[in-house]
Structures are given as C-alpha cells and as structure tokens.
Write a structure and sequence with these properties.
heterodimer, A: alpha+beta, three-stranded antiparallel sheet, 15 helices, 46% helix, B: mainly alpha, two-stranded antiparallel ribbon, 2 strands, 2% strand
Chain lengths: 386, 503
C-alpha cells in the first residue's frame, strides 16, 4: 500500500487520525467551520490546539467560490455589475462604485458632479452599514449580544434609505456606468440628514456599552497584535492596517469620486491589537458622518447621468482601479479587447488578503481569541472566495 | 366555596391525616413524614418547573426589552403560551443519540444534572412554617453538596458525546464549576458566623432576631457569592461551557429534544436555587422588616386584592383599551373581569386565617426577592461580553477566593472583638434566646466595620495580589506593550545603522 498522497488544495496540517490517538496525543485538531456560528459565513479554520492554546492553524476557503472573474468574461459590461453586489454582500454599494468607476475610466467618461456627490453619500452610508454589521457581529462573537440588535436597528435605517433610492436593500446594484438610473427622490436629503442626527448618539451608546467595559477590554486589548511592518508585508489594508498605525487610506492617497472635495481625518491606532481596530472603525464611522454631511451641504444641481453609449464597447486597453471599501482596499484590473465583453477581470479582494494575517495574529492565543480575531478582520466570505 | 378551597389548601396536614388514615387519632408517621411531604414535593415541583418554563419566557422578554424589540408575541397573548409550545415541540422531537456516543452515559448524564438541581429544592425555605418541605439542620451543607453533583452530569455529557466541541465544553465547565464552588463556599461563611447555624430557616430567623439583613454585615461576602453563583450556574458573563460563538453549544452540542430540555431545566433550576440561597443568607429570606409576623388576614387580603386589580389594569391597558375588536380583545376583557371578580372576592370574603396569611405573605416576599435577583442575572447576561477561559479562572482564583478568605478573617476579627465582655473587648453582643445577638450599638459596629474596614482592606489585598497580573492591569499592560514595541524598533534601527556602518 502506498501512502495516500495529499490532494491539491488540501490543508498543510497533517490531519492523519493515526497520529492523533486520543490518549498519547498532546495536540487536538479542532475543525472550526465551515458551519460554525462565528466564522462569518463558510470559513473553515483547522486549529491545532494544545489544551486551549492554538499552536497552528490553517484556513480552508473556497466553499463559496462562484468563479466571478471567469463569469465576467462572458457577460457584457452592464451585466457584470450585479455580480459585484454579491462579492462583499454587506457592502454592495462600495463594490458597485469600484466597478462602474473602472469602466468609466476605460471609457474615459466624465461623470457629472451631482452623480459623484450622490455616489459618495451612498458609499459612505454603505460604509456605515458595513461597520455597524461588523460591530454587531464582532461584539456578539465576544458575547455581548445586545450590541448586535442595536447595530441592526441603525443599519435598518440605512437599508430603508437605500431601498427607496435604489430599489434594493442588500444587493443594491446602485450605480449605472456613467452615473445613476434616476435622481434622488425628493425627501432623500431630509432622510439622510435625519439619520445623521440620530447616529452620533447611537454610536455613543455603543461606546458606553463597550469602550470602557472591563471584560471587553480584557478580551480585545493585546489580542491579535500585528506590527506595522508585518501588516505592510502581509499587504493588509483598511482598518486592519490603520489599526497598526499606518496612515494609509485610498480616499486620501489616490482620491476617487469626489473625495478630494471633503475634509476628513484618517483615524489610526497605536498597538495594532483588536481593541485598536475596534476604535479605528468606530472613529471611521464618525468621519463618514462628517463626509456625508459635507456632501449633502455641497450637493450640486444638474444631471446625474453622463453621455454613455447604449452598448458599452470600451477602446482596447486596461485599467487598474482601487477604492477604499469598508473592509479595505478593493481593486479591479480590467482588460478590454474592444468588444462588448471584458477580456479579463481580476479582483483584488480586501477580505481575502486580510484573512492571510489570521495565522500570524492567532497563533499563541486561545480558541476564544481566534473567534475575536476573525471578527476583527471583518471578512466576508463572498469576497474571499469570489 | 372559597372557604372549602382554602380549607383544603391551608389546613392540609389535618385534612390529610383524617382522610388518608381514617383514624380519629392521627398517625403521625404517615401524615408528617410521607403524605404531607409528598404533597409539598408535588406542589413545589409543579410550581418550580412552571416557573422554570416561564423564566425562559421572561428571559426572552427581558432580553427583548433591552434590545429594543418585542420578543415572543405569536403563541397566545404576548407569547404567554410560548413555554407550552416549546415544551411540546421538545417532547415530540426525534430522540437522537449519536452513533459513536457512549449510549448509557449519554442517556444518564442529563438525568444526573436535573436530579441534582431539583433535589436541592427540598431544603429551600420557601416561606415561614409549613411552606418549607424539610428544615434540616445542615441545610447549607446539603445545598452545596448536592448542587455540586450536577458538574458530574455536564462532564459525563461532554465526554460521552464523543465530540471535540462537547469535550472542550465539558472540560471548561468542570474546571469552572469546581473553582467557583470554592469561592461560593468561602463567601457564605461570614454570614454563618452571625447566624451560628447551618439550617436555612435558622439563618432567616437569626436575621429576623438581629433585625438586619446580613448583606449589611457581609457586603463583600454577598458580592463574592453573587459572582460565584453566576460562575456556578454557567450564566453570562461566565457562560463559557456553552459559549455559542466558540464551542457551538459546549457540552450539550450533541443533545437534542427532551434530553436537551433537561439540561435547560437543570440550568434554570440552579439559577433559582442559587438566588434562593443568596436571598436566604444575605437578603433576609422570607422576612420583610417584621411585616411577615405582623400582617393580619385583613391586610393580606387587601394586598392580594390590590395585586389582582393591578393585574387587571395591566391587561386592560395593554390588551383591551384602544384595541380593534378581535378574539384576543374578548379574551382580554374576560381576563380583566375574572381578575376584578377575584379581587372583589378576596377583599370581601377574606378567606385567610392568621397563620395562612402570614405564611402566604412570606412565600410571596421570598419569591419577589428571588425574582429581583434573577432579573439582575438577566440584566448582566444581556449587557456584558463573555470572559475568556483563562480570565475566568484568574477571576475565580485570584479575586473571588482571596476576597472570600479575607472576608472570613476580617469578619472573624470584628466578631471576636465584639463578643460579650469576658472574652471580647467591646462587649457589643448579648445572649438572647440561646444565641449571641448584637446589641443596638453592635449593629452599627458590624455594619460600620463591614463597609468602612472590610471593603477597603479586602480591596487592598486583591490589588496587591493582582498588581502584576497581565489581564487585570490594562493601562500598565498597554504601556508595557508600547515600551516593548519602542525598544524593538530602536534595536532594529541600531542594527540597521550598524550594518550600514559595516558596509
């Protein structure tokens, strides 16, 4: 009998049962997921435990793989947009923004200012919704269940605003290549302003529940530390990078849409632990509020749709575009061969790359911390697996 | 009619005697030790299990109230029939035993848990006089001993399931319950010093005689008891054994249907039991500022009638006024009418004699205190995050146990100092009805020492013990990390400059 060879894509951990007989093994291999309450979807983490301490771990992904990049090669440019809604399905609007801006770059279309401002408002609302969902689930993973319900209460308001503007709540399909389907409905501004008025007090509520809570501090301070150098080496982006003290934000570094018009700060942490990332995201929510307020104040009048041909056939060429999605830097590389369908579409998923740091963060901590760290990475498996 | 019912209910011992034995001369053995206890057990089991079922409902309603939602609303008015529906569902579920589980142990484990939890109910002093099933003279020991058996159920459940999650959950729960039992045992000793008895009713009577709730003599003991009880009953923030975000469901991951319901029942019963012990030891049990011995049938009838009227008003307010005509509204109107009739009946017929009024009042007081504590437990659960395993152990061993020990030593010192003259220094206690009771100045002395000296001293002790612990000194810990980071960066910079120099 030959030794069974390991199939491609299998875990690098040796899962041979014979080596882990019950009594003489001091290591326990625990299979966490893909059906597990706190792996945020279908992430499978294989943990090697010594007692409750994690000595090694491996992520097994791909349970949600749909081959979006390949599908894109067979669809027209307009048909691809809904697929982007289903990548990071809790921040569909941000994904849409990246895709339509990339195609607009290829087409060299100038989007009207009003449309750009509305896009900023919607993406920032989406960032708020995404962060609210993150905060709720993260807190629930650590055991504070009530925060989840509070966050959902506020997220519901955002989704209602989306529903009335876009027509959908989750998979929004918010933008059209060149601008918008239609202009904002008359009460849009008023409703967003009403929401801006309530959210700061609600954020204060979360802070009262968590910020100085002894148990919360014990569960997050010093957990999953990643140093700035390591974060850069692992190519982390978004709040995971800024939590380690690196002041990098695509909205400031290479402004897109209308972000260069607005004043806002990039919050950063100092220690790169779970607590800092938590603080960074909370502060980001406040900054998003500021951006939305400025965009509403300066919202120009005018058309919301540029002149775009009915059948989109970009000239031969390629484009790389990135935006600051709620999870981190989301990128797209789009190659056009002059036909109505892209020759190649490549996605730089923020969650997938951030997930690579899980091992570095979690080894040496306890099982409970692995859950906290998965929460703080803020991954969405739709985007990880594509 | 009401008279007959109350005779049946409240004059039970005599009635049971004549009915069962058919003798003029009462057969004391059968009536006192077999029949009447059995009836009491049935009543207590029925009431407690109903209360347990409704505690789940209350928990869901309380959490809903805290989380800005409604909670169960579909089954019956305000979801009041939800426990019934849940119980029925669990009974009718398929009985699954995993293929690789140890079948016998898997079956026995939930039974051990629930039996251990329910047995303790026998000695709980639910009220004055006949409301306690058995008033044994080692009640406290009995409670501690029997309730610790339930650990066995959890461990066996986790082990026999043959699942890694269950095993980890069982390991966690056994370690946790064993550690917190120590803190719990230590925390009650101070109260026992004052009561000088292990009988639960005796402890309540001692508080009655001293005219004080022992929480005032024993604030540290009470706090340690509350925290340890949370740990002992596996409730948040110490619900690690069943931490659903980590271990799916801990030791009962593989359980379903009614076996799972048994674990659930055991958990909620032990919540009731630990609250009952806390009330007994620290909150005066069924006493309420002497009212329980002074209340007249007249006053008690008025209290009951007022409660009925309040209930009717509540139903009228939430379910009848302003509602569109519907079946539910009709039910609500009928319920209001029934409660008003009951109120009127109680107020005018006054069906209680002096004894039963006092006993029922004491039962009501005891239940009210237990419910207040349970509400606090629910409040904690829905507010706080969960501890990590090592932090939980640190809290148990480095905070609860030292605090309990410090409390015993300090209380002992204050107690010895206050003994009557020849032995003591201050002479603030006197012999009263066979036991030492503090005098008026003694009350002030014990309360003063407890709050002014015991709390700061034990806090100082804990602070010294935990000065250098990693998890409990957050500010220091963060500064330490920042210093290490700075040093590492500096070292790297130095290394880099050296390398450039060498080059």
């Amino acid at each position: 009998m030959t030794e069974p060879t390991r199939t491609a894509g299998a875990s690098h951990l040796d899962l041979d049962e014979r080596e882990h007989t019950f009594l003489d093994a001091n290591e326990l291999v625990l299979n966490m997921g893909p059906q597990h309450p706190s792996t945020h979807g279908v992430l499978r983490v294989i943990l090697k435990l010594d007692g409750e301490t994690v000595t090694d771990l491996d992520c097994d992904i791909g349970y949600l793989h749909r081959g979006v990049e390949k599908i894109a090669e067979h669809d027209t440019y307009a048909m691809i947009t809904p697929y982007w809604d289903r990548l990071d399905y809790v921040a569909a609007v941000s994904n849409d923004l990246l895709y339509v801006e990339a195609v607009e770059k290829l087409l060299q279309v100038e989007v009207p200012r009003r449309a750009q401002y509305l896009r900023v408002i919607l993406t920032e609302l989406q960032r708020l919704a995404s962060h609210l969902l993150w905060l709720g689930t993260h807190a629930m993973d650590i055991g504070a269940v009530t925060v989840l319900l509070y966050c959902f209460r506020e997220r519901e308001e955002i989704l209602k605003i989306f529903e009335d503007f876009i027509g959908a709540r989750l998979t929004a399909h918010a933008f059209r290549i060149g601008g918008f389907w239609w202009d904002a409905y008359p009460e849009f501004e008023q409703r967003v302003r009403a929401f801006l008025k309530i959210l700061p007090s609600r954020i204060e509520e979360y802070e009262t529940l968590l910020n100085a809570n002894r148990i919360w501090l014990q569960r997050t301070v010093g957990i999953g530390i990643i140093a700035a150098e390591d974060a850069i080496d692992l190519s982390l982006t978004g709040p995971c990078l800024r939590g380690s003290g690196v002041r990098y934000d695509v909205r400031k570094a290479t402004p897109y849409a209308a972000y260069s018009d607005f004043n806002f700060e990039i919050p950063i942490g100092e220690n790169g632990d779970t607590y800092d990332r938590f603080l960074v995201r909370l502060e980001e929510m406040k900054q998003s509020l500021l951006i939305i307020e400025q965009a509403l104040d300066g919202l120009p009048e005018g058309p919301v749709m540029a002149k775009v041909p009915k059948i989109i056939k970009p000239p031969v060429g390629d484009v790389y575009h990135t935006i600051e999605a709620p999870k981190g830097e989301l990128g797209i590389y789009l190659v056009s061969d002059g036909t109505g369908k892209p020759y190649r579409m490549r996605i730089r998923p923020a969650s997938f790359i951030n997930l690579q740091s899980l091992k570095k963060m979690a080894v040496g901590h306890l099982v409970a911390d692995v859950v906290a760290i998965i929460g703080t990475l803020d991954i969405v498996l739709g985007e990880v697996d594509r | 009619m009401i008279g007959l019912i109350t005779t049946l209910l409240f004059a039970a011992p005599e009635w049971v005697r004549t009915a069962i034995t058919r003798e003029r001369q009462p057969n004391v053995f059968w009536s006192e030790y077999v029949v009447w206890p059995l009836i009491q057990i049935l009543i207590v089991l029925f009431i407690v299990l109903t209360v347990v079922a409704y505690l789940v409902w209350v928990e869901r309603k309380v959490s809903a109230f805290m989380q800005a939602r409604l909670g169960p609303m579909r089954v019956g008015p305000w979801g009041l029939l939800q426990p019934l529906a849940d119980g029925l569902k669990l009974l009718l579920k398929e009985d699954i035993i995993p293929l690789k589980a140890d079948q016998g142990v898997f079956t026995v484990a939930p039974i051990i848990s629930v039996v251990a939890a329910l047995t303790v109910l026998a000695v709980i002093p639910w009220g004055a006089a006949w409301a306690t099933i058995s008033n044994i003279n080692i009640g406290v020991l009995f409670v501690l001993a029997v309730s610790s058996i339930s650990v066995l159920g959890l461990v066996l459940a986790g082990w026999s399931s043959n699942s890694k999650y269950s095993l980890l959950g069982a390991l966690r729960s056994s370690a946790q319950m064993v550690s917190y039992e120590i803190g719990m045992g230590l925390s009650i000793i101070g109260a026992l010093m004052f009561a000088r008895t292990l009988s639960l009713n005796g402890i309540i009577e001692a508080q009655q005689a001293d005219g004080v709730w022992y929480v005032l003599f024993q604030p540290v003991g009470f706090l340690v008891y509350l925290v340890s009880a949370l740990g002992e009953t596996n409730r948040a923030p110490f619900d690690l054994p069943e931490a659903e975000s980590e271990l799916v469901a801990g030791y009962h991951t593989e359980y379903s249907g009614f076996r799972w319901a048994l674990f659930f029942m055991a958990e909620y019963t032990s919540v009731i039991v630990t609250s009952a012990i806390a009330v007994t030891l620290f909150l005066g049990g069924w006493t309420l500022f002497g009212l329980e011995s002074r209340i007249t049938p007249m006053a008690f009838s008025i209290v009951v009638a007022v409660l009925f009227v309040l209930l009717a008003l509540l139903i009228a307010w939430r379910g009848v006024v302003g509602e569109p005509p519907s079946v539910m509204r009709t039910v609500g109107i009928v319920a209001v009418a029934i409660f008003l009739l009951l109120a009127a009946g109680v107020a005018f017929a006054r069906p209680f004699d002096a004894q039963s009024a006092r006993v029922l009042f004491s039962v009501g007081v005891f239940a009210g205190k237990i419910l207040a504590l349970i509400y606090a437990y629910m409040w904690f659960r829905w507010t706080w995050p969960r501890y990590r395993y090592d932090q939980l152990m640190a809290l148990g061993w480095k905070w609860m146990i030292p605090a309990g020990l410090a409390n015993i030593v300090l209380t002992g010192i204050w107690y010895v100092l206050a003994l009557p003259r020849p032995q003591g220094v201050f002479g603030l206690m006197r012999e009263q009805a066979g036991r030492l009771a503090p005098t008026g100045a003694g009350l002030a002395y014990f309360i003063g020492t407890a709050f002014v000296l015991t709390i700061p001293l034990s806090w100082a002790l804990l602070a010294t013990i935990n000065r250098r612990t990693r998890d409990f000194n957050l500010a220091e810990q963060r500064q330490l990390q920042m210093r290490l980071r700075r040093e590492r960066l500096e070292k790297q910079l130095q290394k880099g400059s050296q390398e450039t120099e060498q080059a």
